[in-house]
Structures are given as structure tokens and as C-alpha cells.
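Page 37, continued from 36.
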């Protein structure tokens, strides 16, 4: 029984990393495109890219990674609130890394993504996934 739960958790982590990796590529690519090609300030670009990757991540996580509870307005609100907290963490790390420590925004984004990904997995596991 414990081995089955461990395999299920490892499978879920693998799926989460695959979805998260794809969301990261979307986020990172859009951030670069909007900032360096279209010349939007990195802070605004970061909000836009995060939001678009969030939409992908939400749909993929609910459909493929987590055995979600019945999707009610309350569940959607919880997911939205957790995602807004994740956006706040992302933006705080971007500001501190770029404006205070003068680290290139694309490098800072990698660190921000790792922190938010851990936050997302833990909070979605607690608040989104249906308990067996």
C-alpha cells in the first residue's frame, strides 16, 4: 500500500514537473519576447507572461496532474487566490533581484520560477487535490 502511494506521488511529481516545465517555457519565452523584442518594461512583461503561463498551468494541472475536487466557484476562487499569491512572490523576487541586487532579469526569473513552483505544488496538493 505504501509503495503504491509512493509511486502515485512520484508519478504526480513527474507530471507536475512536465506541466510546470512547459509553463516555464511559455512564461520565460513571453517574458523575453515582451521585454527585449517589444520593449515592455520587465515588471509589466513579467505579469503578462506569468498570467498566460498560469492559465495553461491551471488547465493542465486540473485535467492531468491533480485529481481535483469538484470544481465549484469556491475551488476556483481558492486556485485564483493561491495563484495571485504566487504572482506576488514572483513579482517580489523579480523586483528584489533586478532592481535591488541588479541581477539580469532572465536569471532572476529562473529563481522566481523555482520558488513559485514549490509554492504551487505544496498549496495545490493541500487545497486543490481531492483527498482519498
Amino acid at each position: 500500500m505504501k509503495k503504491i502511494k509512493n509511486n502515485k506521488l512520484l508519478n504526480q511529481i513527474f507530471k507536475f514537473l512536465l506541466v510546470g516545465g512547459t509553463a516555464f517555457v511559455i512564461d520565460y519565452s513571453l517574458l523575453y519576447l515582451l521585454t527585449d523584442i517589444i520593449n515592455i518594461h520587465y515588471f509589466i512583461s513579467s505579469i503578462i507572461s506569468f498570467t498566460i503561463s498560469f492559465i495553461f498551468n491551471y488547465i493542465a494541472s486540473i485535467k492531468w496532474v491533480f485529481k481535483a475536487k469538484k470544481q465549484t466557484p469556491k475551488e476556483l476562487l481558492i486556485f485564483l487566490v493561491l495563484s495571485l499569491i504566487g504572482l506576488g512572490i514572483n513579482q517580489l523576487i523579480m523586483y528584489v533581484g533586478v532592481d535591488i541586487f541588479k541581477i539580469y532579469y532572465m536569471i532572476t526569473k529562473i529563481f522566481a520560477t523555482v520558488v513559485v513552483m514549490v509554492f504551487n505544488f505544496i498549496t495545490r496538493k493541500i487545497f486543490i487535490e481531492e483527498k482519498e
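Helices lie at 2-37, 42-65, 73-100, 105-127. Flag for discussion at group meeting. DSSP finds four helices and no strands in the chain.
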